């Protein structure tokens, strides 16, 4: 026979309404009474019906993690997304929060999913794991004053949107400077996230480092499809490039395979530095020199910023900047002075 609120109230010597207030952590109940009732619930093995309690409050205790449109299976397996989802889910368990995923291959369908979640009250808030130019999802969430957090610098309204991010411009600058400090002068930048803020910030950092060293920078090479790699051989020849900054380490992993296939061995002919430091940076030799962006903290803090909104608490600032650090591995070599 299951234990009820009445059983707890009887043994604790309080009214059933008092037990309910303790369960809801009401400020009208003294700490001594809360302690006594909680101890009785523990002794009797009483587990509050969280779902019913939240229903009464109009809450679901579920949040949605929103991924950018993913067009193929390879994009769906980008390790950054897998690692940050794991981080958020692990932290959410500490708060009794469940996770739902919003995934689609295009923004129209993604927006439709978000609208349905909102109107059907399926979730209490949203964490967007990207920041994209012209994103209709963030526009919808912002215009309807919904609870949401971005992982990434907002493309607009940055003074009014809660977000967690690295200093990606500094990341791009420091990655490029690492190559310059190792004697490289002809450096290219390769991306596959041309419409995301993370691209602009890291590319600006690359440009800044090159300009400060009085070196010519190149236009970003955009790799949206496997066949786009074919343009790189001509770029190597035209620029005499000896090094590449690559936007994230799954793309770096694929690029290194391509470089080797056309006779540009890494790091002997082309040095490579990338970002994120996920599993792909150490899958095969040479291990990819990387800037670790603390994905676990990005996930953890994005959830905390969302919970602040869900609980109506005053936020301690709208943004959190997560630290990063360089991890030297095997894909950057020092060039001999000429």
Reconstruct the topology from this structure.
Blueprint: H1 5-12, H2 16-23, H3 31-44, H4 50-57, E1 62-66, H5 73-76, H6 79-93, E2 98-102, H7 107-119, E3 125-128, H8 136-143, E4 148-151, E5 163-165, H9 168-181, E6 187-191, H10 197-212, E7 221-222, H11 232-239, E8 243-246, H12 249-261, E9 271-276, E10 289-292, H13 295-310, E11 319-321, E12 325-327
Parallel strand pairs: 1-2, 1-3, 3-4, 4-5, 5-11, 6-7, 6-8, 8-9, 9-10
Antiparallel strand pairs: 10-12
Helix pairs in contact: 1-2, 1-3, 6-13, 9-10
The largest sheet is: 6 strands, parallel
Dominant shape:
elongated
Secondary structure class reads alpha/beta
Overall tally of structural domains: 3
The portion of residues forming beta strands comes to 5-15%
Q: Mean of the pLDDT scores?
A: 91
- Gyration radius over CA: 25 Å
What would you say the CATH architecture of the largest domain is? 3-Layer(aba) Sandwich
Please tally the helical runs, counting DSSP H or I stretches of 4 or more residues.
Answer: 13
CATH superfamily of the largest domain: Response regulator
How far apart, in Å, are the first and last alpha carbons? 84 Å
CATH fold-level name of the largest domain: Rossmann fold
Largest sheet, spatial ordering of strands:
2-1-3-4-5-11
Percent helix among the residues?
40-55%
Keywords: DNA-binding, Transcription, Transcription regulation
Protein name: LacI family transcriptional regulator
InterPro entries: HTH_LacI (IPR000843), LacI/GalR-like_sensor (IPR046335), Lambda_DNA-bd_dom_sf (IPR010982), Peripla_BP_I (IPR028082)
Pfam families: LacI (PF00356), Peripla_BP_3 (PF13377)
